[in-house]
Design goal:
The complex is a heterodimer.
Chain A lengths: L6 H11 L9 H12 L4 H11 L3 H10 L11 E6 L2 H5 L2 H12 L12 E6 L11 E3 L2 E3 L4 H13 L1
Parallel strand pairs in A: 1-2
Antiparallel strand pairs in A: 1-3, 3-4
Chain B lengths: L17 H6 L4 H8 L2 H11 L11 H6 L10 E6 L9 H7 L1 H15 L3 E6 L4 H16 L15 E6 L9 H8 L23 E5 H5 L1 H7 L1 H5 L9 E8 L5 E6 L2 E2 H8 L9 E5 L8 E2 L7 E2 L1 H5 L9 E6 L4 H15 L5 H18 L7 H12 L7 H15 L1 H10 L8 H10 L1
Parallel strand pairs in B: 1-2, 1-4, 2-3, 5-11
Antiparallel strand pairs in B: 5-6, 7-10, 8-9, 8-11
Helix pairs in contact in B: 2-6, 2-10, 3-6, 5-6, 14-15, 14-17, 15-16, 15-17, 16-17, 17-18
Classes of the chains: A alpha+beta, B alpha/beta.
Chain lengths: 159, 434
């Protein structure tokens, strides 16, 4: 597959570049666009982004490695990120991790064989008042119960 | 409930909508501010006594006055919405329920400091809230509140959102600057301070979202009005966040200096299953924890919390009931700091890992009698020995939990040691000393 931004993403990147006095500053926006288009940031994708912005690949790699939300390896279609930090832990965050892990038969950090789900433990997602919770791709699912998790996974497995 | 009239989280339906916001007097403070001289605005903010809401409680007016008035370089404002401190979830309420008051405050701040570009740094996870704020910014652009020649004043300002990508440290102001510049979010040495050498080496001010949201009412009603709300040394309302073992968790906007017991029992509906409280974190996970028996009569503002060796931080309160395993909680918090350390300073990078290892073996019943002292030693060597305050934030919970809950730690350690006495840790420690 040829690695190339869509016309729309190229336009979005130009828009992002116009917000800053340097090209470097648009790197995080560019990596976000790349992650949305290609699913994850492979070395080739990072090289492509670096070439586009005229930034050395090593710098791009450094930035991508520093931030947890950039996926440096492929993830499932639905990225289940369960918060287990203090407030969620007190409200059963680890039970949520165990429940999902058993239900999908995958460990933390693993992806289901059909590529649909990846399960990870996340640090505080700023949803402490609605604990326990998880982030699925870009959206939050809050006040989780076993029934609610069943419902969510059921819905997602069909999509 | 409370008779307190909220300053930020107003109980008006659809207040996030620009039409509704304007119908209730929104953006009139901006109009008023544009007719004032910049130094008059800074004076008004100084008079209000408004302190930064990001945790350090630095006086906002004073911070603004540090910005050089005459400079050839562009000046920048960074609005800190990184909000990654565990137990903090207040800024997202502002993005969701009252984004325009924050935008208006940002514009007034820009006018007061002569700034033409403001960046709103929002953590990457808050994607839905980024969309909400972007919508509000777009609406404000279309009404002529942001952009070129604002309301015919001849003054122009742009506001851009910069999306983070999952790094707690980017809430530290100089790490945030590096992140906006497209670098790894590593804190910078201070001095030079951002007011002189910030974004791209230009004068920069960094303010918390909640701080900026307080500006429009201060301009509208005057600094003196604001200075009389709540505790005089830390005036205004605070967005307290309640979480953990509590019946009604959530964000409560109340005057500073509200009784902690009122927050928990009157507003928060009390502890789940009516249990007793064992530990409380008063302002986000970095703040030294309190024992359940320390909270009677304790007022929630920075001055009163200092008297019990803690700080208000971001106002995120975590309530833990009598059954809570303190070692497990502290271990989890330390795991967070271990994960989030940027790795720049050795004491923090290595120390957090060591603390986690020691806590893990104590928790698993494999602790050695000297481990508690070792833990304190490591924490003490992190605190104060790093570029930014992250080191302190990682050391405090460990250090103070040991101080306040020593029995819990000793119990776990002594379970793993076979000695024919009750207090094994104490006996062993004496034996070592002799």
């Amino acid at each position: 597959m040829e690695i190339k931004f869509t016309e729309e993403n190229l336009k979005k990147l130009e828009e992002a570049k116009s917000h800053y006095p340097t090209n470097d500053a648009a790197l995080m926006s560019a990596l976000w666009l790349a992650q949305y288009q290609f699913g994850w940031l492979s070395n080739d994708v990072m090289k492509y982004v670096g070439d586009l912005l005229n930034i050395p690949y090593e710098h791009v790699l450094g930035v991508a490695e520093f931030y947890t939300m950039y996926n440096k390896k492929p993830v499932g279609k639905h990225h289940l990120q369960v918060c287990t930090n203090v407030s969620c832990m007190l409200c059963g965050g680890y039970d949520v991790v165990d429940y999902i892990s058993n239900k999908l038969d995958i460990g933390v950090g693993e992806t289901t064989p059909d590529g649909k789900f990846t399960l990870i433990e996340a640090e505080c997602l700023g949803s402490c008042g609605t604990a326990p919770m998880m982030q699925i791709n870009d959206y939050y699912e809050e006040n989780l119960t076993k029934d609610k998790i069943d419902e969510i996974l059921e819905k997602l497995s069909k999509s | 409930m409370s008779d307190f009239e909220p300053i930020i989280l107003k109980k008006i339906p659809d207040y996030h909508n620009i039409e509704i916001y304007m119908k209730h007097g929104g953006y009139s403070s901006l109009k008023k501010a544009l007719k004032m001289k910049p130094e008059e605005i800074i004076e008004e903010v100084k008079k209000s006594g408004l302190r930064g809401r990001g945790g350090a409680c630095f006086p906002a007016g004073m911070k603004w006055s540090f910005m050089p008035q005459k400079t050839d370089k562009p000046k920048y404002l960074c609005c800190n919405g990184d909000e990654s401190e565990p137990a903090s979830f207040k800024d997202r309420e502002i993005f969701e329920k009252n984004p325009h008051q924050f935008i208006e405050g940002t514009l007034i701040a820009c006018w007061a400091m002569g700034i033409k570009t403001a960046y709103v740094y929002i953590r990457g996870e808050y994607y839905p809230w980024i969309v909400m704020l972007q919508k509000a910014i777009d609406d404000a652009y279309s009404k002529g509140f942001i952009g070129k020649n604002i309301l015919g004043s001849g003054y122009s300002t742009d506001i851009y959102i910069h999306r983070g990508a999952g790094a707690y440290i980017c809430g530290e102001e100089t790490a945030l600057l590096n992140s906006i510049e497209g670098k790894r979010g590593m804190p910078r040495f201070k001095p030079p301070f951002p007011a002189n050498y910030g974004l791209w080496g230009c004068p920069t001010t960094i303010n918390n979202i909640e701080t900026l949201a307080n500006i429009p009412p201060i301009i509208e009603k005057g600094g003196e009005w604001f200075s009389k709300i709540g505790e005089p040394k830390h005036p205004g309302s605070l967005l307290y966040g309640l979480s953990g073992h509590i019946n009604k968790p959530g964000i409560y906007e109340l005057p500073s200096g509200t009784l902690l017991t009122d927050l928990i029992y009157k507003y928060g509906g009390g502890v789940k299953d009516n249990k007793a409280i064992k530990m409380i974190i008063p302002g986000g996970s970095s703040m030294p924890p309190l024992r359940g028996d320390e909270i009677d009569g304790l007022r929630m503002d920075n001055e009163h919390l200092k008297s019990v060796n803690s700080y208000i931080g971001t106002g995120g309160i975590v309530v833990m009931n009598e059954d809570t395993d303190i070692v497990k909680v502290i271990k989890r918090i330390t795991k967070f700091y271990y994960h989030e350390s940027c790795g720049q300073c050795t004491p923090c990078r290595e120390g957090c890992g060591w603390m986690l290892k020691i806590l893990d073996r104590i928790d698993k019943g494999m602790g050695r009698p000297e481990d508690i002292d070792l833990l304190k030693d490591v924490a003490n060597n992190i605190e104060g020995n790093t570029i930014c305050a992250f080191g302190d934030a990682a050391a405090w919970p460990v250090k103070w939990a040991i101080k306040k809950f020593i029995a819990d730690f000793e119990k776990k350690v002594s379970e793993s040691v076979e000695l024919p006495v009750t207090n094994k840790v104490h006996s062993l420690r004496l034996a070592v000393q002799e």
